[in-house]
Amino acid sequence: MDSRDASGADEWPLPPSWMWSCQKCTELYKAMKRAPEVVDAARKAGEPGVDYDPLDTVVSTQIRLARHIATRHAADVPALDPSCDRCTWDEQREIPPVLVLEHRARHVFAPPSIAGLL
User: Fold this and answer.
1) I need a surface site. Which of 13, 64, 76, 116 has the fewest CB within 10 A?
2) Greatest C-alpha distance within the chain
3) Residue 104, SS3?
4) What is the DSSP letter of 48?
5) What's the rounded Cα separation, in Å, for the pair 90 and 92?
6) 52 near 43, Cβ under 8 Å?
7) Which residues contact 118 (CB under 8 A, 6 or more apart)?
């Protein structure tokens, strides 16, 4: 399987230019993209004191980036996506606004299959 076989739901979008003009966005995005490799390398090296849980490490880097975008770039967060089950789920419940913005921020940098999870 190569990139031509991936479904659109699994393709990582190209981040918008405003993200690259923000030093913190750039740092957080790069950390997020490197997280799976870092966790795998640490697991293989058997380094003590390192969290080898990819779900914890990978997800936490996404949360940090989404939180930064939600709090520092709220005007650039996309509107609710009616085709996203999570967006419409968020709309139907009383969820803190920053968490709603964090979810919608994921639509900027994560594939739909991941954005729909958090």
Assistant:
1) 13
2) 45
3) helix
4) T
5) 5
6) yes
7) 59, 62, 63, 66, 86, 102, 103, 106
The CA distance from 104 to 35, in Å, is: 21
Q: Which residues contact 61 (CB under 8 A, 6 or more apart)?
A: 28, 31, 32, 35
Residue with tokens 């380094």: 47
Number of Cβ atoms within 10 Å of the Cβ of 78: 13
Q: Please provide residue 41's backbone torsions phi and psi, each rounded to the nearest 5 degrees.
A: -65, -40
pLDDT digits (tens, 9 = 90+) for 54-71: 666 788 899 999 999 999
1 vs 4, 5, 9, 103, CA distance in Å? 8, 6, 15, 29
* Cα–Cα dist 47/51, whole Å: 9
